[in-house]
């Protein structure tokens, strides 16, 4: 991204944000009355004095600095996943598969609650649930809170995303929709595939053939088989002999959703209601590009790029260097919400949410690897990943009227049980190398092949109770809140690794190594003294278990101190204990010895927000709070994980500390019309012991881990505008402008961060200097059509912070996200007395690319990862019965 391009886009967004309110102000100031030649009209206007307007807005009524994402906002953007929709909100960016960065901070500083309850994550490398699991059809609204409130968990850094599922419906309905899409880099082109087997594998459900064989499950360590060659041979033969990756044409993406609601009115005001929704999506994506790893001085460790093949000495088989990956994704989501209203004051609700995603991956990396200097190597991986999150919540709301000044008492309670699982029942890796006789052969070393089985389970139990008491005292509205939370979380992870290695004293012939793996590892070549023997190569650190318990209580008060000045203040007390049990990995001193990490600490977390409505429909907010950021259970574990997307190893750090954060916010808000507003805000944060993801040596190469920096600061400015252009006033004689409502939604965020440590200063990991969104669109309610052009910009950020190794600091890995330009349009039409909604969307019109890179002291730059992102064309059709 060139500086000119960055400044140009930021300038466009900033000018839109800052000039549109001026237009609206001038429009308010101008008299909207008939021309002076109409004497009756003039005399009428002389009797009217307009001082201001009350403009209702959900965001305005909150007691915190917040943004609200409504169903109308989602319709405008045409987004199918809540993560995509949140990317349009001021100061938010979405990274990877739906991970929220608030004000440029990493996803670790974001919190997500669903109907008030926290959620476990099915990702072993992430602390929060990925939002691409949530289709927008299952979410009624989202509140993005940027200042802390005491009723929420104390882990708050950048912001909190509060998702709400649909409650008891107002009317019965049945709705159905379907969609199809094509991506220019994938659809109709050749992809990489392997045979997962099973009748239902084509919809993301694997059969038992991918699981650890029952024979090996007798003793997964294989130790009891060591002195029984027949049993060891049977164990090796029990593994599926599926290795090869084939090419096939990619299908288009498709999906459907079905939802319905029913209401039953009983006697005495009792009302039953239920809402059920099911959503299914299939998506396939090709990714082709380069991946490299570098030494501190810029020298190349691994070179997976076309340049590797170009320098292969003219060998005819040295072609196709670089990386290719095809990922098929099957998503099945379901929501059931059932409630009973006894009257307007008492309500019970049962919500069950199931989010399931299966990914089948095939990967080929070809190039120069440090493990085989001077030889072209081809690395293949087959991977099957099943992720599932199930959340169940029983909640109640009860309102009582009391004979006192604070006369309304509301009691809210919830009991939630959630689980998240991630199973990798089948992952295979193997490598061939191009030898001097121009023949690819299976590498002879111990890393020539591996088979993995792993499973992660995260269980969360939570009970919360909230009391809200409000009323009037001395003509001042007062709201008092108090409540508590008990949370228990358990996480277990286990992995097994196996490898076929030559039997003792056996040398595998070059001829056999030149065949495909199905022949090399055929049953005839397993066991005995003439072939391969199955070995367990599991590392002690491939297992860990962890627990966390939190007990919390809070109290807060919202008071109108003087006219037009509201103050909300509170404090939260949290007492937590985290316990992680893992092991020292192989290759390190004391390998196999236990490592127990224990973090037990309590905090008092004060918060205060003042809102001053200093002019008609304008208000100023100031907020302060102290919050924390705990290490995730996995980040404390010394276990080794693979990031499937970047093919990078990650390891936790048992010595991490809890980070403490001081938060300051100041925001000016102007509400000048229905769904029309402008805001400008300032924010400042200081961090003690911030936790960051780092880039550092792991084993024989480089990977990721985590560490505490000493301190850090973040400061910034954000501005936004939501404005409907008065086209009928500007062009009253043009019919098109009279019938259409033209709107602009724009926001821009500038932030600057600084991490201070013993030997260096840099920006926070994951923090972008510039973020921006622009939406330009029109809507015709009479013709029932709308169209929106959307721009999303995220500035470059540190993906992985380089650490000091020896006397040298490794260079940071810099991520350069693409500029995304999308176009969304929809039309409602009637056929046979029924309405149908037809939607069309074009994503990534610019065809931007993704890149991560490193810059070195000698002025050089190396691309760590880069690949093309195609343009996606989508069509959807839905109707309601």
TrEMBL record:
It is found in: Cell outer membrane. Keywords: Cell outer membrane, Membrane, Receptor, Signal, TonB box, Transmembrane, Transmembrane beta strand, Transport. The keyword ATP-binding does not apply. Residues 59-159 form the TonB-dependent receptor plug domain. It is a multi-pass membrane protein. Pfam families: Plug, TonB_dep_Rec_b-barrel. Residues 1-26 form the signal peptide. Residues 409-845 form the TonB-dependent receptor-like beta-barrel domain. Its main location: membrane. PANTHER family: PLUG DOMAIN-CONTAINING PROTEIN, TONB-DEPENDENT RECEPTOR. Belongs to the TonB-dependent receptor family. This is TonB-dependent receptor.
């Amino acid at each position: 991204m060139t500086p000119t391009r960055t400044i140009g886009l930021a300038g466009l967004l900033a000018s839109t944000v800052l000039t549109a309110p001026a237009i609206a102000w001038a429009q308010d100031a101008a008299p909207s009355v008939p021309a002076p030649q109409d004497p009756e009209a003039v005399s009428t206007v002389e009797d009217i004095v307009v001082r201001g307007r009350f403009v209702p807005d959900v965001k305005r009524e909150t007691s915190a600095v917040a943004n609200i994402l409504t169903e109308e906002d989602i319709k405008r953007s045409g987004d199918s996943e809540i993560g995509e929709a949140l990317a349009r909100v001021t100061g938010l960016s979405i990274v990877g598969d739906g991970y929220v960065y608030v004000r440029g901070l990493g996803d670790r500083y974001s919190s997500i609650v669903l109907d008030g309850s926290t959620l476990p994550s099915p990702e072993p490398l992430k602390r929060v649930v990925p939002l691409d699991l949530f289709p927008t059809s299952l979410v009624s609204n989202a509140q993005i809170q940027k200042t802390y409130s005491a009723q929420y968990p104390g882990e708050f850094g950048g912001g909190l995303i509060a998702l709400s599922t649909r409650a008891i419906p107002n009317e019965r309905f049945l709705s159905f929709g379907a969609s199809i899409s094509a991506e220019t880099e994938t659809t109709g082109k050749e992809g990489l595939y392997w045979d997962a087997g099973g009748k239902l594998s084509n919809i993301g459900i694997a059969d038992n053939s991918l699981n650890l064989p029952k024979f090996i499950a007798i003793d997964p360590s294989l130790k009891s088989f060591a002195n029984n060659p027949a049993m060891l041979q049977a164990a090796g033969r029990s593994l599926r002999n599926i290795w090869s990756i084939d090419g096939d044409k990619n299908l288009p993406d498709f999906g459907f959703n079905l939802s319905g609601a029913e209401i039953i009115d009983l006697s005495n005001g009792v009302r039953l209601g239920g809402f059920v929704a099911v959503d299914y999506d299939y998506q396939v994506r090709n990714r082709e590009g380069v991946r490299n790893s570098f030494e501190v001085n810029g020298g190349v460790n691994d070179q997976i790029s076309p340049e590797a093949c170009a320098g292969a000495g003219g060998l005819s088989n040295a072609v196709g260097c670089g990386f290719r990956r095809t990922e098929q994704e099957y998503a099945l989501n379901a929501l059931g919400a059932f409630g009973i209203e006894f009257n307007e004051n008492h309500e019970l609700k049962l919500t069950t949410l199931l989010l399931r995603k299966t990914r089948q991956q095939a990967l080929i990396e070809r190039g120069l690897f440090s493990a085989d200097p001077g030889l072209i190597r081809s690395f293949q991986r087959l991977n099957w990943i099943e992720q599932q999150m199930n959340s169940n919540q029983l909640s109640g709301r009860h309102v009582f009227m009391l004979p006192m000044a604070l006369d309304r008492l509301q009691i809210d309670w919830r009991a939630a049980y959630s689980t998240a699982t991630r199973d990798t029942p089948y992952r295979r890796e193997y490598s061939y190398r191009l030898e001097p006789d121009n023949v690819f052969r299976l590498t002879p070393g111990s890393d020539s092949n591996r088979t993995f089985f792993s499973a992660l389970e995260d269980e969360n139990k939570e009970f919360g109770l909230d009391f809200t008491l409000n009323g009037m005292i001395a003509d001042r509205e007062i709201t008092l809140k108090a409540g508590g939370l008990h949370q228990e979380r358990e996480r277990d992870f286990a992995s097994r690794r196996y490898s076929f290695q030559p039997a003792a004293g056996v040398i595998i012939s070059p001829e056999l190594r030149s065949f495909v793996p199905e022949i090399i590892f055929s049953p005839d070549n397993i066991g005995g003294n003439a072939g391969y023997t199955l070995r367990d190569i599991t590392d002690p650190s491939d297992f860990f278990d962890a627990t966390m318990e939190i007990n919390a209580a809070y109290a807060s008060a919202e008071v109108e101190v003087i006219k037009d000045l509201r103050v909300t203040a509170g404090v939260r007390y949290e007492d937590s204990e985290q316990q992680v049990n893992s092991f020292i990995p192989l290759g390190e001193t004391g390998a196999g010895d236990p490592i127990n990490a224990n973090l037990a600490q309590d905090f008092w977390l004060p918060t205060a927000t003042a809102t001053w409505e200093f002019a008609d429909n304008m208000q100023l907010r100031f907020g302060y709070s102290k919050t924390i950021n705990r290490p995730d259970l996995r980040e404390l574990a010394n276990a080794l994980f693979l990031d499937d997307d970047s093919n990078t190893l990650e390891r936790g750090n048992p010595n991490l500390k809890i980070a403490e954060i001081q938060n300051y916010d100041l925001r000016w808000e102007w509400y000048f019309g229905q769904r029309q507003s402008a805001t400008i805000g300032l924010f400042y944060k200081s961090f003690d012991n911030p936790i960051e993801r780092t880039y550092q040596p792991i084993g024989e190469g480089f990977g990721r881990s985590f560490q505490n920096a000493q301190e850090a600061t973040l400061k910034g400015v954000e501005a936004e505008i939501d404005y409907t252009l008065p086209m009928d006033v500007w062009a009253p004689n043009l019919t098109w402008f009279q019938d259409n409502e033209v709107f602009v939604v724009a926001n821009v965020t500038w932030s600057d961060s600084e991490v201070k440590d013993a030997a260096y200063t840099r920006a926070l990991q994951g923090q972008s200097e510039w973020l921006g969104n622009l939406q330009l669109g029109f809507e015709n309610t009479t013709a029932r059509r709308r169209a929106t052009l959307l721009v999303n910009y995220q500035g470059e950020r540190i993906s992985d912070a380089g650490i000091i190794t020896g006397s040298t600091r490794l260079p940071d890995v810099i991520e350069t996200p693409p500029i995304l330009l999308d176009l969304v349009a929809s039309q409602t039409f009637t056929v046979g007395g029924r309405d149908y909604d037809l939607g069309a969307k074009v994503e990534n019109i610019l065809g931007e690319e993704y890149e991560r890179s490193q810059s070195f002291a000698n002025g050089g730059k190396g691309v760590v990862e880069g690949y093309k992102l195609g343009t996606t064309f989508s069509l959807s059709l839905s109707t309601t019965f």
